[in-house]
């Protein structure tokens, strides 16, 4: 298996995020998938899913993240996990915290060779977290799940969607993550897709404040920190002279999203389908799609993202650009940074060095 730093992202993706189902017992107010209580009859079948796993192997065995909805709503989940692991894939599992997530399920994940297990935590209090989930008692269930995961041999990840609702509780969430000895805190910066509303988003200045706070947290917290749809976090780390780890993986560039019905997208937050895996192989779609080729070409960025000196290590969120303008190559309005070339042309004083 090729290491991420050595992988050619024009040829092979690093991560396949696979929405196995949209079925879920929760009704989260910010859900990208608009999850439903019942499974879609047009979901890929078990045999189709196994053929897709074979396709994914053609791209030098990228990480497969089984998600949803709630992947535990699919009775063939562990059959697919076993098949993927046997094919040489690393498999991560991102589930909802419902009565489906039992101690025995966690033990089975360990036995099946799942390398990482992710659950969501969107508040440091039951009031906030349960408000996101629209289910009373969800926070208590999540604490129980984290305890069970801590006692397993799994690498544990907490996913948090950053919004105006929970910005003030991020430090409390970090404390909980430390308490349960998680390995990775992954923060998603809201894109208004699915049930997510633009009114829940932070503005560019708020994003900057949160990301600078995160860069400070990353210096002393015992877990790793990463962001989704906030690639300018890497710019902030660079400005703060902190080490950049790994590659800049963004929508369609080292990352691909597969829907429950087999449609392929640059990410789950950028709703532009590039094809269907039952008609064209995933490898062919990833390597040859005009949209994905354009997303991987940083020289095609428009506006301030196109002239920014941090274009290569950041590049802006293509999903947010599309949500705001209808053009995935436009500037990311979630970033407050003004590139040096624009400061000079406008006679602006530099606020940072």
TrEMBL record:
The keyword Chaperone does not apply. Its cofactor is [4Fe-4S] cluster. GO terms for molecular function: 4 iron, 4 sulfur cluster binding; catalytic activity; metal ion binding. Keywords: 4Fe-4S, Iron, Iron-sulfur, Metal-binding, S-adenosyl-L-methionine. SMART domains: Elp3 (SM00729). It comes from the Bacteria. CDD domains: Radical_SAM, SPASM_MftC-like. Coiled coil: none annotated. Residues 10-221 form the Radical SAM core domain. This is Radical SAM core domain-containing protein.
